[in-house]
């Protein structure tokens, strides 16, 4: 074996050893970045509830809450069955909202008790595709006659603005926010996708009272469960370390699963009914501050988001649907 060949083997060995040393560090960095991304906007306090399976122990320590009111929204929209369902030009056909306020917020801002103080619900008449598909009716339970006599989306916005004024959230003249309120939804889809699509189809800008980031309650629940230490004692726990209860990253935390995981009563009403979904999401939201979670936006909304079927001036390019 020549000296040159031996040097090559030594170099290869050193390179392999270096990669073995760097790989765990790189994985650690990626893991920290992933956790930072998921926990954005969700601040569980120290002493988060312990979890064993689906059994929880509530931590009574309260968080300091910056927002005074929360608007829970879970719209229903026109839809078609198939692989492109999420790219479809959905039009909103039900607009249900639950307004929640604190009932125990002190002067320092600490609170844990939320309650529904008002509700708003309206069906909405689609204009691009006025006829509901059979799949849509079966999924949402909304009949054709319910949307035929309903206001259009722009008319709905006028009615809902009156609701915001009547409940003291915005100024009747200027539209300025009078209190700090936060929009909430199960996942990012309702405002990020449905509202943005609908505003494009209706050829209007997103109203100022709905712009801004939102609180994705599903993400908040996932992070709460992921951060909760396991009750099973281990050698590491006895030495002072705490481990999180493993939640599969690919598991979809549906509303019924969230209720079950938090130890709440099962889903009440009909799934995919907008108002029933909204009320159950409000129940989940009300549970989070009882477990020391600070409620604040954790999901960015881009009102300029675009889909491939969007043409000019609100035109839907049907060849791309």
TrEMBL record:
One of the Pfam families matching this protein, by short name: RNase_T
Domain named Exonuclease: residues: 69-294
Molecular function terms from GO: 3'-5'-RNA exonuclease activity; nucleic acid binding
This protein's UniProt keywords: Exonuclease, Hydrolase, Nuclease
Annotated protein name in UniProt: Exonuclease domain-containing protein
Organism: Daedalea quercina L-15889
């Amino acid at each position: 074996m020549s000296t040159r060949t031996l040097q090559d083997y030594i170099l290869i060995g050193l390179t392999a050893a270096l990669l073995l040393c760097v790989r765990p560090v790189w994985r650690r960095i990626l893991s920290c970045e992933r956790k930072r991304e998921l926990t954005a906007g969700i601040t569980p306090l120290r002493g988060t509830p312990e979890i064993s399976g689906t059994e929880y122990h509530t931590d009574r320590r309260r968080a300091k809450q910056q927002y005074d009111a929360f608007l829970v929204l879970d719209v229903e929209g026109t839809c078609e069955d198939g692989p492109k369902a999420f790219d479809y030009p959905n039009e909103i056909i039900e607009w249900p909202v639950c307004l929640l306020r604190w009932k125990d917020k002190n002067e320092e801002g600490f609170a844990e008790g939320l309650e529904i103080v008002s509700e708003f619900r309206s069906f909405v008449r689609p204009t691009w595709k006025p006829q509901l598909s059979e799949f849509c009716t079966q999924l949402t339970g909304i009949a054709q006659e319910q949307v035929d006599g309903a206001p259009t989306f722009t008319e709905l916005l006028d009615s809902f603005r009156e609701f915001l004024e009547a409940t003291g959230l915005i100024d009747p003249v200027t539209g300025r926010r009078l209190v700090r309120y936060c929009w909430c939804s199960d996942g990012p889809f309702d405002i990020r996708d449905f509202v943005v699509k609908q505003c494009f189809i209706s050829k209007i800008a997103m109203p100022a009272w709905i712009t801004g980031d939102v609180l994705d309650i599903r993400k908040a629940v996932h992070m709460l469960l992921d951060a909760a230490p396991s009750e099973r004692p281990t050698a590491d726990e006895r030495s002072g370390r705490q481990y999180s209860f493993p939640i599969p990253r690919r598991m979809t935390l549906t509303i019924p699963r969230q209720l079950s995981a938090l130890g709440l009563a099962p889903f009440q009403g009909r799934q995919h009914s907008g108002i029933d979904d909204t009320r159950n999401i409000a129940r989940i939201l009300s549970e989070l501050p009882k477990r020391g979670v600070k409620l604040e936006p954790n999901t960015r909304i881009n009102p300029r988001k675009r889909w491939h079927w969007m043409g000019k001036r609100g035109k839907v390019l049907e060849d791309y649907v």
